[in-house]
Here is the input.
Amino acid sequence: MAKYEVKVFTGSSVYASTFNDVYIKLVGTKGESERYWLKSLFSSVNVVGSKVNTVDVHCPTSVGDLILVEIDKRPQRIFPEDDWFPAKVEVKSPEGNTYFFPVYRWIDDSEVHRFRAGKALLCYEETHSLGKYDREQELKIRAEEYCWDSFEDGLPYCIKADSTDSLPSEVQFSFTKDAEFKLTAVHGQAQLKLSQLVYCREKWTSFDDIQRIMSNATEISEYVQKHWKEDTFFGYQYLNGVNPMLIRRCRVLPDNFPVPEAMDFGEGSLAEQMKKGNIYLCDYKRLDGVKARMIDGEQQYLMAPLVLLFKKQDDTLVPIAIQLKQTPGEDNPIFYPSDSEYDWLLAKTFVRSADFTEHQLNTHLLRTHLLAEVFAVSLLRNLPMVHPLYKLLVPYTRYTMHINLLARKLLISKEGVFTKYAASGCKETKKTILTRSLTSVTYSSLCIPDDIAERGLEDIPNFYYRDDGLQLWDIIFRFVKGVLSSYYKDDAAVQKDSELQKWIGDIFKYGFLSQASTGIPHQFDAVDDLIKFVTMVMFTCSCQHGAVNTGQYDYGAWMPNNPTSLQLPPPTTKGTTTEATLLETLPDVNTTVNGMAVMWLLSQQSSDFVPLGQYPQEHFFEEIPCKLITKYQGELKKLSAAIENEAVETRRACVLKALMVYFNEDPENLIREYMVRESALTSLLNTLPQTAAHMLLFLNRNPEDKQLSSKAETVTVKVSEITFSSMSSCLMGTLNEISELQDFMHCSAVA
Here is the structure.
């Protein structure tokens, strides 16, 4: 008789356990076991830690090398159908081998689910017919679950889903994330204590009034409020604000920006400084000619400015010329620092409003969210769980589809907050800007080393996004190279991996609309090509998104620094702007409040946040990738400490928060986690009467079963006596008795 020691690990998330009967079968190269029942998987809603159930599976002879396990569950007679989240299965064979089977998915039906052994295999390495068949079936099911859909013509495709509930359960928010995250302006207004201003359509009459609504201030937002008028801070944001992706070195002035090259600003002429490499350009040409929407019955305005910046001898970066529209003319003056205070400040305000739109639609939405969704959908459609690239990338797809679907429903839809309260909210305007942005995307612009070089920013000082980002890219690159090189020994191995080729083929087709001009590969011919592309995917889905998202409230809480819309047209002459003009130009009160609420919500980090480099779900089990993960985490921790030690100025904190790795437990996170779990227990308490009712119904139908009746009556009484105040002292014991009753009923049924 061959004995297999089987351990089934239930996930540690809230509601991961089940009252249902769970069964397991082992399948190997020489046969399969009987279907075995696992005793009592229910574990007090897993408030602390995960649950491990152990069972010995006996077979007449060895089933050989294990290929997969089959798992299914059936509802009990007195318990309703519920969901279960198994994490992994561990099996020790009679030959002394230990097999791991990663699961990490919700099982919400009574179907048989198959999970492969943890060793990563490429498609052409499958030697057993059952392994090949299971691989094909898994991808067939995934192709039905993860379908492509066209959100808008000319834009990247997305997952086809009507609502978040229709998404596959494994890509939905966890209970924790769902309880904390409400992507609505109303929720944000409440959190910021601004709900009473939501219907106020008045214009601002003083900057003091704007300051009074700055709630939940951060060190950075307070710094912004004090320094937003300064030219040095205006220039600084192009390097280390939330949109460090636009600035580039300027060697030759654009034809439509006729700044006199002979202009002298104290350190030589413009022409001389361009030759020295000290002049930089920000061109918002993607916004040219688009129509701004009406808000509260008032026409809004969105410009497409050009900004010239100069690196001074003290290494600060300051603006030296601003033109608010793309076409030069008498009604489109070029503004200079030598103009009146409010002429210059108003010109900079129009630029900051344009930067809000450029950042939100291109830098943030398109280049991180929409592309990340393409990477994720293609991964889940084309690579099975046993594929090494699936194991490497699946942590980087976490929540991507859920958050993007919410954004499409609640932010950029017809009634979305962005649509209603941003100048660029018109459907055609958003589409035009996004389409232009996608056309401008190149492979090199998504790879930070190439992007920095192409924009000529290799040596500009105080560019922390570049400094920290390049170090992170290098760490990720070395990790990816180590992992992938252990599976792909040569270029031929890459070329013959049909699943891998389908993955990149779908990305090229559905993400970049088969535009060869982007430079995005449509197939992989070499290991080095694969390594670079995967590095880009991981960097985009983690570091890049953090850099352009995390600081939104820091830099936008003080509305004049980041207005979502402007209410007056740009000045056509100089010398007429006053402080009152500037205040009238800024968005009204309710537009301000809604903009702040959304930026605050988008900047929040949930308590189940997973730091870069952490793999809480075990997918790799081989020695090489496991050692590389440990090394990867060590390098990230070292870099995190180095960045933290160097971040002595408040203004660097945004980049630090966006790019560093969090290893220390945040006390606020612990509080939030406690509140979420308390909510889960309250919800469970509300379901216990239903459980009691099921028990009573069962008793009425089976009055002759005296032993069972006695046990059930005891538990039913205890359920009825539980209140929230007594939950901590008696709930767990009662739940364990329910679990024992479940086991007793199963044994009675079998007998």
